[in-house]
Amino acid sequence: MTKIISGYLLIADITGYTGYLSSSELDHAQDTLTDLLELLVDHTRPSLVISRLAGDAVISYGLGENFIQGQTFVEMIEDTYVAFHRAVDLMVMNNTCNCRACANVGSLDLKFFVHYGSFGIQRIDTHDELVGSDVIVLHRLLKNSVVEATGFRAYTLYTDAAVRQLGIDEIRDKMTPHTETYEHLGKIKIWVQDMLPAWEAKKEAVRIEIPVEKLFLQVETTIDMTPEMVWDYLVHPEFRKILIGSDRQEIIDRQGGRVEVGSTYLCYHGDKLHLQVVLEWQPFSRMVTDDRVWFMGAWILIMVEYILTPEGSRTRLTQRMGNIRGHWISLFLIRALGPVIGPGMNKQFQLDIESFRDHIEADRQANRPDLPLAQISITGEKIAAAAAAGLPPQDGKSAS
Predict the structure, then answer these.
(1) Which residue has the higher pLDDT, 1 or 360?
(2) Using CA atoms, how far apart are residues 164 and 248, in angstroms rounded to an integer?
């Protein structure tokens, strides 16, 4: 008997696939789609598990209990879209082939469908088949009037159930409300996010780095999680306070319900309130804050970089501090006492980052266990086969 569970359902679907195939040489079209499907597979990370590939789409799911934060999930989808858009742009720029497939790559885009509900998981051959009425709802939503109603060519469609469960009501307010009606299902309320602004924002993002000559100290550790999971903990006040060594933390100045550039972490250290203003927000890779801290009887500003570097299934977290500003007396004392206090501070920050690592690894083990069914093995052959399955028949024979 199939066990019914509650969780998230996600379909990443390549837009323009059918039209692209109808006007393309099939050999090169299959190579292109295989590469893009491989990209979608690579960007399907915990807490999501791939169910199966379906020609031009990747279908995945995640358990509702102890899922990642709503904003992190939204940013995972945006990050996938940005990577897809960048890959298509590179294919167009580097094209030296005159065939129709290579010439039409720029017509491809991406859309996502997110729903929350109940479903069963049946192991069939080498994939997990998702079954249940909520699975049907999601697949019915693939056929919709979103483009006609909104003009969005690339979008993420969230059902109202998914928005409520993710707790992204404020982020939802920036989305476009829409309703679809289906036979036997009735009206379904959805929220649509245009993905093009996510791409534009990524292109315009400013990179801030601490020059080597202004670096005060640097510590790092390797964490047994993917960058997405480490990021989810890193930006969460309850866990971030361990890394910072504060009593507690709060976030103010969210932008449209999000923590991003301009937001501030309030860090309580006894009777002192330190501020960390976000200067750069690059989910899953980089975060830079400008910290106002109390040092030897005066307030100083110090820039802090957090860098996440993937190492296989693990992540190296690097914390760099420097570019210190403040009253000239404070800066004079820091320079004069640096050789004396530097080693002790470096040791303490190293202990803090290792404590953060140990704490979040323990929390994930206890509260965010891997899904009960193992991730299916997505080999290059399976990705190529999925792309080939979507090709039109050749010489009267099925492409599969």
Answers:
(1) 360
(2) 27
